[in-house]
Amino acid sequence: DLSEMIDNAAPSITCLAEQGVNFDTNCQYEVLDYTTMATTSDNCASTVTVTQSPVAGTMVTSNTLITLTADDGNGNTNTCSFMVNITDNITPVAACVLPFTIQLDGTGNASITAADIDDGSTDNCGITSMSLDVNSFDCTDLGANTVTLTVTDASGNADTCTTTITVEDSINPVASCVAPFTVELDASGNASITAADIDDGSTDNCGITSMSLDVNSFDCTDLG
Protein backbone atom coordinates (compact mmCIF):
# COMPACT_ATOMS: atom_id res chain seq x y z
CA ASP A 1 0.00 0.00 0.00
CA LEU A 2 1.68 3.20 -1.24
CA SER A 3 1.01 6.54 0.39
CA GLU A 4 2.09 10.03 -0.65
CA MET A 5 3.44 12.47 1.92
CA ILE A 6 2.25 16.03 1.23
CA ASP A 7 3.48 19.22 2.93
CA ASN A 8 0.60 21.66 3.01
CA ALA A 9 1.72 23.66 6.03
CA ALA A 10 2.66 27.26 5.32
CA PRO A 11 5.96 28.55 6.65
CA SER A 12 5.88 31.13 9.40
CA ILE A 13 7.35 34.59 8.91
CA THR A 14 7.74 37.50 11.29
CA CYS A 15 8.42 41.01 9.98
CA LEU A 16 10.16 43.94 11.56
CA ALA A 17 8.15 46.45 13.55
CA GLU A 18 7.18 49.76 11.94
CA GLN A 19 10.31 51.56 10.71
CA GLY A 20 11.16 55.26 10.74
CA VAL A 21 13.61 56.58 8.12
CA ASN A 22 14.56 59.92 6.55
CA PHE A 23 14.27 61.35 3.05
CA ASP A 24 17.49 61.93 1.12
CA THR A 25 18.50 65.23 -0.50
CA ASN A 26 16.22 64.45 -3.46
CA CYS A 27 13.16 63.92 -1.23
CA GLN A 28 13.27 60.17 -1.85
CA TYR A 29 14.01 57.02 0.13
CA GLU A 30 15.74 53.97 -1.29
CA VAL A 31 14.05 50.82 0.02
CA LEU A 32 16.43 48.52 1.87
CA ASP A 33 16.66 44.74 1.57
CA TYR A 34 14.46 43.68 4.47
CA THR A 35 14.30 39.99 3.47
CA THR A 36 17.30 39.13 5.65
CA MET A 37 15.71 40.86 8.62
CA ALA A 38 12.65 38.59 8.73
CA THR A 39 12.39 35.56 11.01
CA THR A 40 11.14 32.39 9.29
CA SER A 41 10.59 28.73 10.05
CA ASP A 42 8.95 25.73 8.37
CA ASN A 43 7.92 22.24 9.34
CA CYS A 44 9.78 20.58 6.47
CA ALA A 45 12.00 22.98 4.57
CA SER A 46 15.43 23.70 5.95
CA THR A 47 15.58 26.86 3.87
CA VAL A 48 12.72 29.30 3.41
CA THR A 49 12.99 31.80 0.55
CA VAL A 50 11.86 35.34 1.34
CA THR A 51 10.93 37.87 -1.33
CA GLN A 52 9.98 41.50 -0.93
CA SER A 53 7.60 44.05 -2.44
CA PRO A 54 8.55 46.69 -3.33
CA VAL A 55 11.98 45.25 -4.01
CA ALA A 56 15.16 46.62 -2.49
CA GLY A 57 16.49 49.64 -4.36
CA THR A 58 13.06 51.02 -5.22
CA MET A 59 12.94 54.80 -4.75
CA VAL A 60 9.80 55.91 -2.92
CA THR A 61 8.51 59.37 -2.05
CA SER A 62 5.97 58.63 0.69
CA ASN A 63 5.29 56.26 3.57
CA THR A 64 5.49 52.75 2.13
CA LEU A 65 4.06 49.35 3.07
CA ILE A 66 6.69 46.61 2.79
CA THR A 67 5.36 43.08 2.22
CA LEU A 68 7.57 40.03 2.72
CA THR A 69 6.60 36.61 1.36
CA ALA A 70 8.03 33.34 2.70
CA ASP A 71 8.07 30.31 0.36
CA ASP A 72 8.99 26.83 1.61
CA GLY A 73 9.56 25.46 -1.91
CA ASN A 74 6.63 23.07 -1.59
CA GLY A 75 4.04 25.50 -2.82
CA ASN A 76 3.27 26.96 0.57
CA THR A 77 3.64 30.67 1.25
CA ASN A 78 2.95 33.14 3.99
CA THR A 79 3.26 36.93 4.18
CA CYS A 80 3.73 39.71 6.67
CA SER A 81 3.87 43.48 6.24
CA PHE A 82 5.15 46.57 8.02
CA MET A 83 5.19 50.28 7.35
CA VAL A 84 8.23 52.37 6.57
CA ASN A 85 7.44 55.93 7.64
CA ILE A 86 9.61 58.55 5.96
CA THR A 87 10.45 61.88 7.58
CA ASP A 88 11.99 64.98 6.03
CA ASN A 89 14.53 66.24 8.56
CA ILE A 90 16.62 68.29 6.12
CA THR A 91 16.48 72.03 6.76
CA PRO A 92 15.89 74.41 3.83
CA VAL A 93 18.68 76.74 2.77
CA ALA A 94 17.50 80.36 2.88
CA ALA A 95 19.16 82.75 0.42
CA CYS A 96 18.64 86.52 0.52
CA VAL A 97 19.33 89.09 -2.18
CA LEU A 98 22.11 91.62 -1.66
CA PRO A 99 21.18 94.87 0.12
CA PHE A 100 19.03 97.11 -2.02
CA THR A 101 17.20 100.42 -1.91
CA ILE A 102 13.49 101.20 -2.00
CA GLN A 103 11.81 104.59 -2.42
CA LEU A 104 8.93 105.89 -0.35
CA ASP A 105 5.88 106.84 -2.38
CA GLY A 106 3.89 110.05 -2.32
CA THR A 107 2.20 109.00 0.89
CA GLY A 108 5.50 108.27 2.62
CA ASN A 109 5.12 104.50 2.45
CA ALA A 110 6.82 101.54 0.75
CA SER A 111 6.50 97.76 0.99
CA ILE A 112 8.33 94.60 -0.05
CA THR A 113 7.38 90.92 -0.36
CA ALA A 114 9.24 87.75 0.55
CA ALA A 115 9.71 87.16 -3.18
CA ASP A 116 11.61 90.45 -3.40
CA ILE A 117 14.08 89.20 -0.78
CA ASP A 118 14.37 85.56 -1.85
CA ASP A 119 17.45 84.80 -3.93
CA GLY A 120 16.81 81.18 -4.79
CA SER A 121 16.23 79.52 -1.43
CA THR A 122 16.12 75.71 -1.75
CA ASP A 123 14.85 72.61 0.02
CA ASN A 124 15.07 68.90 -0.76
CA CYS A 125 11.29 68.50 -0.67
CA GLY A 126 10.29 72.02 -1.67
CA ILE A 127 9.56 75.23 0.20
CA THR A 128 5.95 75.73 1.24
CA SER A 129 6.13 79.24 2.72
CA MET A 130 8.34 82.33 2.91
CA SER A 131 7.80 85.24 5.28
CA LEU A 132 9.46 88.49 6.36
CA ASP A 133 9.76 89.95 9.83
CA VAL A 134 9.33 93.44 8.32
CA ASN A 135 7.61 94.18 5.01
CA SER A 136 6.38 97.78 5.24
CA PHE A 137 8.25 101.01 5.76
CA ASP A 138 7.45 104.69 6.28
CA CYS A 139 9.24 107.96 6.92
CA THR A 140 10.42 106.76 10.32
CA ASP A 141 12.43 104.02 8.60
CA LEU A 142 14.61 106.24 6.41
CA GLY A 143 18.09 104.74 6.15
CA ALA A 144 19.29 101.15 6.60
CA ASN A 145 16.90 98.48 7.90
CA THR A 146 17.73 94.82 8.60
CA VAL A 147 15.13 92.40 7.23
CA THR A 148 14.94 88.65 7.97
CA LEU A 149 13.52 86.11 5.51
CA THR A 150 12.22 82.79 6.89
CA VAL A 151 11.70 79.83 4.55
CA THR A 152 9.78 76.75 5.72
CA ASP A 153 9.13 73.32 4.17
CA ALA A 154 6.11 71.04 4.54
CA SER A 155 7.66 69.26 7.53
CA GLY A 156 8.16 72.47 9.47
CA ASN A 157 11.90 72.67 8.92
CA ALA A 158 12.95 76.32 8.60
CA ASP A 159 15.96 78.49 7.87
CA THR A 160 16.55 82.26 7.86
CA CYS A 161 18.76 84.83 6.19
CA THR A 162 19.05 88.60 6.51
CA THR A 163 19.66 91.52 4.19
CA THR A 164 19.68 95.30 4.45
CA ILE A 165 16.93 97.45 2.96
CA THR A 166 17.80 101.12 2.58
CA VAL A 167 14.72 103.34 2.60
CA GLU A 168 14.98 106.64 0.71
CA ASP A 169 12.68 109.61 0.14
CA SER A 170 13.38 111.02 -3.32
CA ILE A 171 10.16 113.02 -3.66
CA ASN A 172 10.65 116.79 -3.48
CA PRO A 173 8.40 118.90 -1.27
CA VAL A 174 5.77 121.06 -2.95
CA ALA A 175 6.37 124.71 -1.97
CA SER A 176 3.31 126.91 -1.85
CA CYS A 177 3.49 130.70 -1.37
CA VAL A 178 0.78 133.12 -0.32
CA ALA A 179 -0.46 135.64 -2.83
CA PRO A 180 1.51 138.92 -2.88
CA PHE A 181 0.95 140.94 0.24
CA THR A 182 2.06 144.24 1.71
CA VAL A 183 4.28 144.98 4.69
CA GLU A 184 4.56 148.34 6.34
CA LEU A 185 7.88 149.90 7.32
CA ASP A 186 8.04 150.85 10.96
CA ALA A 187 9.01 154.25 12.40
CA SER A 188 12.66 153.38 11.94
CA GLY A 189 12.11 152.55 8.25
CA ASN A 190 12.41 148.77 8.67
CA ALA A 191 10.18 145.69 8.28
CA SER A 192 10.69 141.93 8.37
CA ILE A 193 8.84 138.76 7.46
CA THR A 194 9.25 135.07 8.31
CA ALA A 195 8.96 131.94 6.22
CA ALA A 196 5.71 131.17 7.97
CA ASP A 197 4.33 134.50 6.65
CA ILE A 198 4.99 133.35 3.08
CA ASP A 199 4.09 129.67 3.41
CA ASP A 200 0.64 128.80 2.08
CA GLY A 201 0.44 125.11 3.00
CA SER A 202 3.60 123.66 1.49
CA THR A 203 3.58 119.84 1.64
CA ASP A 204 5.88 116.83 1.59
CA ASN A 205 5.29 113.08 1.79
CA CYS A 206 7.54 112.82 4.86
CA GLY A 207 6.95 116.25 6.30
CA ILE A 208 8.81 119.53 5.97
CA THR A 209 11.78 119.99 8.31
CA SER A 210 12.74 123.55 7.45
CA MET A 211 11.60 126.62 5.52
CA SER A 212 13.75 129.64 4.69
CA LEU A 213 13.53 132.89 2.73
CA ASP A 214 16.16 134.42 0.50
CA VAL A 215 15.07 137.90 1.78
CA ASN A 216 13.38 138.51 5.09
CA SER A 217 14.18 142.13 6.01
CA PHE A 218 13.35 145.37 4.21
CA ASP A 219 14.07 149.10 4.57
CA CYS A 220 13.41 152.35 2.73
CA THR A 221 15.50 151.22 -0.23
CA ASP A 222 13.03 148.38 -0.87
CA LEU A 223 9.91 150.49 -1.30
CA GLY A 224 7.72 149.06 -4.02
Short description:
This protein has 224 residues and is mainly β. It is built from two helices and 16 strands.
Give an overview of the whole structure.
The strands form six sheets. Strands 2-8-7-5 form a four-stranded mixed sheet, with no helix packed on it. 4% of the residues lie in helices and 37% in strands. The longest helix has 4 residues. β7 and β8 form a beta hairpin. With 224 residues, it is mainly β.
Strand content: 35-45%
Largest sheet: 4 strands, mixed
Element-level helix/strand string: EEEEEEEEEEHEEEEEHE
Neighbour order of strands in the largest sheet: 2-8-7-5
pLDDT averaged over residues = 95
Determine Rg (CA atoms, Å): 40 Å
Range of helix content: under 10%
Total number of beta strands = 16
Distance between the termini: 149 Å
Report the total helices: 2
Which consecutive residue ranges, at least 5 long each, have pLDDT under 50? none
Overall morphology: rod-shaped
Instruction: Output the structural class.
Output: mainly beta
